[in-house]
Amino acid sequence: MRIVIAPDKFAGTVAAAQAAAAIARGWDGRHPGDELLQMPMSDGGPGFLSVLAAALTSSEIREVATTDPLGRPVSASLLLHEGTAYVESAQAVGLALLAEAERDPERTTSAGLAGLLEAALEAGVARIVVGLGGSATNDGGRGLVEALVARESVARLRAVELVVATDVDNRLLGPAGATAVFAPQKGADREAVARLEGRMQEWVAELDGLNAVARQPGAGAAGGLGAALLWLGGRREPGAALIADVIGLEPAMQEAHLVVTGEGSYDITSLRGKVVSAVAAAAGRAALPCVVVAGQVGVGQREAAANGVDETLALADLAGSVAAAIASPEQWLEAAGATLASRWARI
Questions:
Q1: Could you give the CA distance from residue 121 to residue 127 in angstroms, rounded to a whole number?
Q2: pLDDT tens digit sequence for 92-135
Q3: Is 210 exposed, middle or buried (0-12, 13-18, 19+ CB in 10 A)?
Q4: What is d(CA 307, CA 272) in angstroms, rounded to the nearest whole number?
Q5: How far apart are CA 265 and CA 298, in angstroms?
Q6: To which H or E segment does residue 259 belong?
């Protein structure tokens, strides 16, 4: 059998490459001899550069000094390849850069992304691809725009091809927008969500031209950074589809028998453009069954099936609890691989 194993990272526990390797070990232990194609994925969030660096073997990584969501110095990276600079916004504005007690989207800023974009411009590239996802911010890109204006870099950015690789397709405002859906994950309570939505509306009214892009899919990605980058002349692409194209995911599915994908939490936001939805769609085009392995599963069987997923498997169920799964994620990913082999492998 040929099995394509294409998970995202399991946020806060294991990277995508580690997750793919663990699932493969579990499968191989139960059903050795199968062809297991490990194809780690990303949708633009944390891990975006590591997945690209593994696929683009002639690329160059450059370290960049910038600031984190609270304005503190942090080191980030650019990935340069054939005239393109790849930027992972989470390295400057990511939730993972903050301790849990520091998470407060009323305080955090997207200004640090400006340092990465400036470094990309200084590298002399014609194209900049910005991966969005996993942010600690909810400022609609205000910090980024103000920093770029101060550096007089807006016109320079608009002179290059700017690709906005988003992990979700949410718009900027409203009940399905950046604040309502994602701010609670970043530390905002109900009252803070209301204040943040008000600030976002004020920002849209203040920045000339922002309203024109606020309704576009992906504008709400990374706390509204999607909208700011679209305002800067960017063109949105689903991040998972971009990665799939770079690594050759769909060609790898030729003559395969099963596709396995996964992420930390398979929930309603997973259906808005994240890795699992993109991989399931590709599997559907190839007429292949698709299985999702996740730390937790919050999507019902019927809804999963409607999105091209034939089976879901929660590590929390295998481990007996969420805490146990988080404590030893690779162990339970191996167990998931073995479980899937027992169910799907051909004798």
A1: 9
A2: 999 999 999 999 999 999 999 999 999 999 999 999 999 999 99
A3: buried
A4: 11
A5: 7
A6: strand 258-266
User: Is residue 347 pLDDT above 50, yes or no?
Assistant: no
DSSP result, 203-238: HHHHSTTHHHHHTSTTTTHHHHHHHHHHHTT-EEEE
- Which amino acid is present at 184? P
| Res 273: pLDDT | 77
Give pLDDT tens digits for 138-184. 999 999 999 999 999 999 999 999 999 998 999 999 999 999 999 99
Structure tokens given for 61: 């990584």
Residue type, 133: G
* Residues 324, 91: Cα–Cα separation, whole Å: 28
**Which 8-state DSSP code applies to residue 249?**
H
CA 103/CA 106 separation, integer angstroms: 9
Read out DSSP for 44-95? SSTTHHHHHHHH-TT-EEEEEEEE-TTS-EEEEEEEEETTEEEEETHHHHBG
Q: How far is 92 from 110, CA to CA, in rounded Å?
A: 8
Q: 222: number of CA atoms within 13 Å, CB side?
A: 37
Cα–Cα dist 149/154, whole Å? 6
pTM for the full predicted model: 0.92
Q: How many residues would you count in the chain?
A: 347
Q: Which residue has the tokens 């069987």?
A: 301
Calpha distance 51→126 (Å, rounded):
22
What's the one-letter identity of residue 170?
A: N
Helical segments of the chain, H only: 16-30, 48-55, 90-93, 112-122, 142-150, 154-158, 178-182, 190-206, 210-214, 221-231, 239-247, 249-252, 275-285, 301-306, 315-319, 322-327, 329-344
Tokens linked to 296 = 């937790």
Strands lying side by side in the sheet with 60-67: 60-67, 73-81, 84-88, 127-131, 161-166, 235-238
Rounded to whole angstroms, how far apart are CA atoms 283 and 256? 10
